[in-house]
Hints:
Elements: H1 4-9, E1 17-18, E2 21-22, E3 24-25, H2 36-49, H3 59-79, E4 87-90, H4 93-103, E5 113-117, H5 126-135, E6 138-142, H6 153-158, E7 163-169, H7 181-191, E8 195-199, H8 211-214, E9 218-222, E10 233-237, H9 239-244, E11 255-258, E12 263-265, H10 279-295, H11 297-316, E13 321-323, E14 333-338, H12 344-353, E15 356-357, E16 359-361, H13 366-372, E17 377-381, H14 388-405
Helix pairs in contact: 2-10, 3-10, 4-5, 11-14, 12-14
The protein binds 4'-deoxy-4'-aminopyridoxal-5'-phosphate (PMP).
Amino acid sequence: xxxxxxxxxxxxxxxxxxxxxxxxxxxxxxxxxxxxxxxxxxxxxxxxxxxxxxxxxxxxxxxxxxxxxxxxxxxxxxxxxxxxxxxxxxxxxxxxxxxxxxxxxxxxxxxxxxxxxxxxxxxxxxxxxxxxxxxxxxxxxxxxxxxxxxxxxxxxxxxxxxxxxxxxxxxxxxxxxxxxxxxxxxxxxxxxxxxxxxxxxxxxxxxxxxxxxxxxxxxxxxxxxxxxxxxxxxxxxxxxxxxxxxxxxxxxxxxxxxxxxxxxxxxxxxxxxxxxxxxxxxxxxxxxxxxxxxxxxxxxxxxxxxxxxxxxxxxxxxxxxxxxxxxxxxxxxxxxxxxxxxxxxxxxxxxxxxxxxxxxxxxxxxxxxxxxxxxxxxxxxxxxxxxxxxxxxxxxxxxxxxxxxx
Length: 406
Ligand code: PMP
């Protein structure tokens, strides 16, 4: 049974007023709120078992290690990885992509090619540009159409034996467009030996991830967008690849033996987890996985899709309102502008006065904004605790903003 009141009761932060109005939190693509069970897991770590992991013989260190490794196994199941040691803890998607682009440095040479798309977040653009600078490789960008749908015929055209990396998001944060990853991986496998990297920052919170079915080499996501604390994230990598590639950062935890003559590296996953990890955060990420699985992927998807459809239908009734990616297959996000109102933050400020939290601006996707020839959009993004009543308040707010600004 999907009981929205019961779900909302788990998020104490939602029960407050902002600017004298009940908070309507619709900035979930930036970061989601955290249920009490996640906060309790985090708090319990610091109040009961705080100790450094993996090195300690004492009881607290062993408890902390067990709990963090239990969380790793929960995440393994959550994304259907074959092995728990294919799950590497990071501090988020950005760190995951930078890590991958760094360890791939020696795999690329001059004139090799890296394929990304127009729909990417800056964190799936800039690390690849930096890799191009280091290696002389070239970036190729799959264009999109007016609806924010990738034009995959360009992927067919770009793919060749020169292609060494294909890195795309599963869901666009700026528009919510869902990319057909299985089709993309199949095309890529058929035409090249490229490493396939999926940015799952906006998909992991919304639908069931199966890295084996997706057939990707790497899958990265952020904990804080899926009900876990900030500073948590995951990099999944296929065993053979992670075993073959070099480490990223050097330091404690990632060595097997260290001397001035020669250092040998630890096995997976520790080879890629140098230094003291975010133990409390990683344990709480496991609690966030438990929360999602308790609610159920199907319930989450059905509810969020219904919210999106309801919001889109009502917003489109406002004259002069344009939704970017309106006709594309989308999840969790509606991104729009009002005709004649060039500055999206003006709309955002009026909404804030009504207690409605949305994001405005370029959403770290300037190429998408350039494509539509705009400076930014107003983006409302949904999580499992949002309600239809909150959408009504959003729509009322947008109408008010139109009256005030037009
Ligand atoms: N990729 C996408 C699609 C995102 O939405 C985000 C966060 N907005 C990122 C990458 C970067 O995630 P983080 O800031 O958590 O590292």
